[in-house]
C-alpha cells in the first residue's frame, strides 16, 4: 500500500496544508489526507480521485453509505467506517456552531444551513426557529414529523414555545423529501394561519422556508407574506 509520503507530487498534501493552509487544498487532496494510504495499484491521491469521480458530487459522497463506499476498489470496511465517522463528526461540529452562534441574516443564508440539516430526511419535518430581537437563534424545535396540513400543523404549539422562550420572532421551516420546494396549497394555508396567529400575540413571523434538494422556497422573498 502507498502512503501519502510515497506519492510523486510537487508537494504532498500534508506539506501543502502545513505550508498554505487547508483552504488551498483540493477536495481530492483533503480526502487523500484522511484516507492516509492507497492500494497496491493506486496511490492515495488516485484513490481519492476515484472516490470523488464515482460519486460525481460532494453531496452524493456525503450521503453515501458504508456499503456504497465498499463498492469502490481499495475501500474496505475499515476505510468505509472511517469515512462515515468523519462525515458524522463534521455534521455534528457544524450543528454545534449553529446552535451556539446562529443568526438568521436572510433567507438564502439560512436556507443553506437548513439544506445541510434536512437533506437526509425521508419524511417532512416541521421546525420552528425562535429568534430574539436581533434574529439570533434562541432555540430550534421540531414540531412534528409528517405531512404539513391544517390538521397537524397547529399554530398553538408553535406559539406556546414562542411565549415560553420570550421570542421576538419565529421562522418556520419544513422540507420536501421530493426535492421540489414549491409550496403546496396546504403550505400556503398553514403560512396564512401562522401569520394571523403571530400578529394576534405580537410575535413577528420572519419567514416560512421550504427546503428541497439544493433549492429552497421563501415565502418572504416571494412576496407571499405581509
Quick summary of this structure?
This protein is α+β, with helices and mostly antiparallel strands and 226 residues long.
Can you give a write-up of this model?
With about 230 residues, the chain is an alpha+beta fold. It has 9 helices and 5 strands; from the N terminus they run H-H-H-H-H-H-H-E-E-H-E-H-E-E. A 5-stranded mixed sheet has the order 2-1-3-4-5, with helices on both faces. The radius of gyration is 22 Å and the shape is elongated.
Describe the sheet with the most strands.
5 strands, mixed
Proportion in helices: 40-55%
Structural class: alpha+beta
Order of helices and strands: HHHHHHHEEHEHEE
Write the layout of secondary structure elements.
Layout: H1 13-20, H2 27-35, H3 44-55, H4 58-62, H5 66-70, H6 77-101, H7 107-118, E1 125-131, E2 137-145, H8 155-164, E3 169-175, H9 185-201, E4 204-211, E5 216-218
Parallel strand pairs: 3-4
Antiparallel strand pairs: 1-2, 1-3, 4-5
Helix pairs in contact: 2-3
Question: How would you describe this structure in keywords?
Answer:
226 residues; alpha+beta; 5 strands; disordered N terminus
Amino acid at each position: 500500500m502507498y502512503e501519502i509520503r510515497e506519492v510523486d507530487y510537487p508537494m504532498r498534501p500534508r506539506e501543502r496544508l502545513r505550508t498554505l493552509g487547508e483552504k488551498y487544498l483540493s477536495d481530492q487532496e483533503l480526502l487523500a489526507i484522511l484516507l492516509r494510504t492507497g492500494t497496491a495499484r493506486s496511490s492515495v491521491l488516485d484513490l481519492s480521485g476515484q472516490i470523488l469521480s464515482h460519486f460525481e458530487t460532494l453531496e452524493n459522497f456525503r450521503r453515501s453509505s458504508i456499503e456504497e463506499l465498499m463498492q469502490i476498489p481499495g475501500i474496505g470496511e475499515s476505510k468505509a467506517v472511517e469515512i462515515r465517522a468523519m462525515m458524522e463528526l463534521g455534521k455534528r461540529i457544524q450543528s454545534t456552531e449553529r446552535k451556539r452562534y446562529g443568526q438568521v441574516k436572510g433567507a438564502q443564508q439560512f436556507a443553506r444551513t437548513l439544506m445541510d440539516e434536512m437533506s437526509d430526511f425521508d419524511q417532512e419535518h416541521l421546525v420552528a426557529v425562535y429568534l430574539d430581537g436581533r434574529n439570533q437563534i434562541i432555540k430550534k424545535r421540531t414540531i412534528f414529523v409528517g405531512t404539513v396540513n391544517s390538521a397537524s400543523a397547529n399554530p398553538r404549539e408553535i406559539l406556546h414555545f414562542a411565549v415560553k422562550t420570550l421570542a421576538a420572532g419565529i421562522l418556520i421551516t419544513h422540507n420536501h423529501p421530493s426535492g421540489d420546494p414549491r409550496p403546496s396549497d396546504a403550505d400556503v394555508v398553514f403560512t396564512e394561519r401562522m401569520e394571523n396567529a403571530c400578529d394576534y400575540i405580537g410575535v413577528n413571523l420572519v419567514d416560512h422556508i421550504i427546503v428541497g434538494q439544493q433549492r429552497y422556497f421563501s415565502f418572504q422573498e416571494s412576496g407571499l407574506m405581509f
